[in-house]
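User: I'll paste a sequence; please echo it back and then give the predicted structure.

Assistant: Echoing your sequence first, then the prediction.
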Amino acid sequence: MNETRILRVMAIDDDAPVRASLKQFDWKSVNAEWVDEANNGQDGLNKCRELRPDVVFLDIVMPIMDGLTMLSYLRDELPHVYVIILTCHQDYSYMRKAMQLGANDYILKINIDNNELFRVMKNLDQRIRLMWDGQDNDDIRKLLSRSAAFQQWWQFNNTHYVPFTGSAKVLILVLKKSILASEAFFIVNGPERELYPKIWYILDMTKLVLFFPPDISEDCFYKYAAQLAALNIELMPKIITGGIVNENSDLHKTLTDILTLIKLLFYKQPGEILESSNDKFSDLSQQEEKNLMAHWKNYPLQGRFEDFLQGFFKDWAQKQQIDPQQLKRIIVSLYIDWVGDAQSLTEQAIIEFFQTEAFSLDELIESTIECLCSGELAQNLLRWEIRTALKFINNSYKENIYLADVAMPSGLSPNYLNYLFQKYFNVTVNEYILRFRIDKAKELLRSSTEKIYEIAERIGIPNYRYFSSLFKEQTGLTPKAYQKSCMGKSNHV
């Protein structure tokens, strides 16, 4: 019976006096027995594989294999083992890493005495026996360590294997990033969470499935879910509950049906719980789409496309909660309308955009902006009027051009175009033209054998002295000095 179960204890430490102190402790007083010891991580890991201890006291800094490496192996191969880190004050950073890898507790070596060991073991004894409650001792070891068997069942739909007996309440934890098995163990069995009776398995490196007793109270169930959700903001944990399942039902189908609902997590914030029987995407009404387009048409000219996505559009989408693919279709329509050119996105670009996987609404908007800001598409984030002005400058910079000339093709007043240039580029139109010409001059000075006065004429500044003055003002060098410096770099290379 569980009441007579004796905890098996090992110590892995290269410090012989520390091992001796641990070995001399009265382990019977805490329903435990001393099994073995090792002075390095490699020997310790091999002995753990052979002797299957329940509790391991583990040093961090050791020869051959350090404690952190050994801990990662333990969490992958023997996830049921409770690990107590033995540490010194100067090992604090290592100790923090060990706790992240799934260590259960720690003791400062200078504090090792009977009282401290008694406290730690009593605490562990309570946790372990709560986990064992109602389970056969050998069964609990199998249930906690046979993820490979579960994976085989999951892959081949082996109806002869059910990971629990009777009935169970199922929960699926979905993470944004892939995790290691050792990290999964810490997520499921971290402080306080190990007190909840459950069986858990890894579906893949971003999904865990947990089975709870069917009579677990709603309060306990959701408290555990809330603890999972608050665990790590970078992992953005989201949760799907799937009701009660039993060993006689088609469990594989049940889990598959639940997993099809993962896309519904798109609008859920980290920590929110998706009830699989209640949630679904909304149908977008024609009126709501008209409301969006009406707001879009009134969006101020000086605004930016990304600001619209991150502001009004995000709030609108969160409220509507439509299928993400439909949301992408709307984004593409808005984008094409923004740039005023249906050819601005190639068919391949549209296909790639629709294949983009986003874990959340925020991530979709971020990836959309990143996509549109890359390469040749970056210019498309500017309003059509601004791009028209830039195109005019690119085609006409060799001639005498004025602000009114640049504004005319866009249909804007010269003053308003100047305002927009200052908003987008932090310079006036004339300052932009000057910088554009100087950049063209620098290209020619680096690659052309033309005389400097000829280069000045080619960029629209036919006065040689005026060109030299402007060039030095912008670059700090005269044209000749700049050309010489470029030749020197070329020769040096």
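The radius of gyration is 33 Å. The chain has four domains: 2-132, 160-275, 286-381, 384-492.
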